Amino acid sequence: MKVTVENEKIKVNSPYNKSFVAGAKQIQGKWNAPCWVFPEENKEAVKALLIECYGECGELGAVSTVTVDLDLDTYTEGYEDGEIRVGSIVVLKRLYRDREVIFSDNAMLISGGFATSGGSAKNPRISADEGTIVRVKGVPETIYSKIKDHEGVKLVSDIDVESLKAEREKLLKRIAEIDGLLAL
């Protein structure tokens, strides 16, 4: 995606996203091939729309993000039209019934897999094998806050909990040793 601001206009050249197109029309966006053009005074609305649909907003500002795991056994919120989405961000898609599932740049398979074919010729579908988990990096916190309570969504922490627990136990043992020495 490329976003530029020039001559009091914001120009957005991005991959097709039907949610973006619908939203762009609502905030005075005009299609002028090869990009959408918005009045600069709508900057905050354009930024919010870009974050909602793509998870980033180019040179309009920084975005706080998180990493989530989607358990596709229970995550059903984002299945639509041969795509799986987090909010409006497309993370997986199948363009044709007999083609492989395509991952977005910020998604990766952790476990499981997908059927080699799904849906019909007119309506391809993504069918996940049991136990399929997909990790999605760079999910804007604004989108995560909307989906955090949905089934199958788990926040991936950057903290290694097991290492911290082991270090805590070691420190508690050392404190007990020090307490014993001080009691002498």
The span between the termini is 68 Å
**What's the order of the H and E elements?**
EEHEEHEEEEEEEHEH
As a percent range, the share of helical residues equals 25-40%
Secondary-structure-based class equals alpha+beta
Describe the fold and architecture.
The chain is of the alpha+beta class and 184 residues long. The chain contains 4 helices and 12 strands; from the N terminus they run ββαββαβββββββαβα. The strands form 3 sheets. It has a 4-stranded antiparallel sheet with strand order 1-2-4-3, with no helix packed on it. The protein has a 4-stranded antiparallel sheet with strand order 10-11-5-12. A 4-stranded antiparallel sheet has the order 6-7-8-9. Helix 1 packs antiparallel against helix 2. The radius of gyration is 22 Å and the shape is flat.
Secondary structure: elements and pairs:
Elements: E1 2-6, E2 9-13, H1 18-26, E3 30-32, E4 35-39, H2 43-54, E5 65-71, E6 79-80, E7 83-86, E8 89-93, E9 102-103, E10 107-111, E11 133-140, H3 141-147, E12 153-156, H4 161-183
Antiparallel strand pairs: 1-2, 2-4, 3-4, 5-11, 5-12, 6-7, 7-8, 8-9, 10-11
Helix pairs in contact: 1-2
Describe what is shown at a glance:
The chain has helices at 18-26, 43-54, 141-147, 161-183; strands spanning 2-6, 9-13, 30-32, 35-39, 65-71, 79-80, 83-86, 89-93, 102-103, 107-111, 133-140, 153-156.
